[in-house]
Structure formats: structure tokens, C-alpha cells
Design brief:
Blueprint: H1 2-17, E1 27-29, E2 34-35, H2 37-43, E3 46-52, H3 57-77, E4 80-85, H4 95-102, E5 107-110, H5 115-120, E6 127-132, E7 135-141, H6 147-159
Parallel strand pairs: 3-4, 4-5
Antiparallel strand pairs: 1-2, 1-5, 3-6, 6-7
Helix pairs in contact: 3-6
Length: 160
């Protein structure tokens, strides 16, 4: 009986302290190829992923604010920013025209079936995460002006 209790306690403690795994959901690039967060994280040590939608005003405000400073972020930290659209099939046709109109230079991906959104349990966008060495190290929901500065500070702290 004691042995069973020890195994149960060990298993529970392992579960409580396990690192959060990156969801293995398929994302589409604008060129039509498939990728996953795991593949992206394996190629890049430090990435930011922001889930957004064309109908979400705070999302567009966040992406506009990041776009204004993105070149500096890349040259100073090497971070790569991925904006993942969670638009459904009805609104997905607005993604490309919006990107072209805004001139956003960061990577745009499509979560066509909201698989990534569900995997993260996201109910509100924008939802922003930082991934360092394949592990999620920061999560944030929502946007207020100036959040891009806080995000940059976190990126700089994680760079080294």
C-alpha cells in the first residue's frame, strides 16, 4: 500500500511540475505550406507568437504597434514574431488584404480550424506567448497601449 501511495505522489508531482508542451497543431503559411510551433521553435531560439483575428480591434492595434518597432527588435534581439490568425473560413479571406494594407513585415500564419486556439484554451485575443528554446516562458492576454514595450523588455531579458 505504501508503495502505491509513493508512486501516486511521485506521478502527481511530476505532472504538476512538467513543462508545458508546445501544441502539435498544423498551421498554414500564406504560401500554403504547413508547419507547427514545434518546427518553428526548433529553427529559432526565441520567438513570439500572437493569436489575432481580423475582426479584433485590440489585435490590430497590437500588431500595428509591434510593426512600428519590429525591425529594431530583430536587429537587437534576433527574435522572430509570428502573428497567427484565428479567423474562421468566413473571415479568413480578409487576412491577406489586411496584411497587404498594413504592410506588416513579421511572419503571418493561419490557424484555419482554431486547433491552436483550442490547444492553448484561448477565449480572448490577442493572446501572446514567448517561446524560448522550445518552451513557453511567457503568456499574456489582451492589449493596452504600451504592452509592446513590456514585451520587448521580456524579450531582451530572455535573449541571453
Amino acid at each position: 500500500m505504501k508503495k502505491t501511495i509513493y508512486i501516486l505522489v511521485f506521478s502527481l508531482s511530476f505532472t504538476l511540475f512538467a513543462q508545458e508542451q508546445l501544441p502539435n497543431t498544423t498551421l498554414k503559411t500564406l504560401s500554403g505550406s504547413n508547419t507547427t510551433l514545434g518546427e518553428i521553435a526548433a529553427e529559432n531560439d526565441l520567438i513570439v507568437v500572437s493569436l489575432w483575428a481580423t475582426w479584433c480591434v485590440p489585435c490590430k492595434n497590437e500588431l500595428d504597434a509591434v510593426a512600428d518597432v519590429y525591425d529594431d527588435w530583430v536587429s537587437e534581439t534576433g527574435v522572430i514574431y509570428y502573428a497567427v490568425s484565428i479567423d474562421d473560413p468566413r473571415t479568413a479571406k480578409r487576412v491577406r488584404p489586411m496584411i497587404n494594407g498594413k504592410g506588416w513585415e513579421f511572419e503571418i500564419l493561419l490557424d484555419e480550424n482554431s486547433d491552436l486556439k483550442r490547444a492553448f484554451g484561448v477565449s480572448t485575443v490577442p493572446y501572446t506567448i514567448i517561446i524560448k528554446s522550445g518552451e513557453i516562458v511567457f503568456k499574456h492576454t489582451g492589449y493596452t497601449p504600451g504592452f509592446e514595450d513590456e514585451l520587448y523588455e521580456k524579450i531582451v531579458a530572455l535573449k541571453d
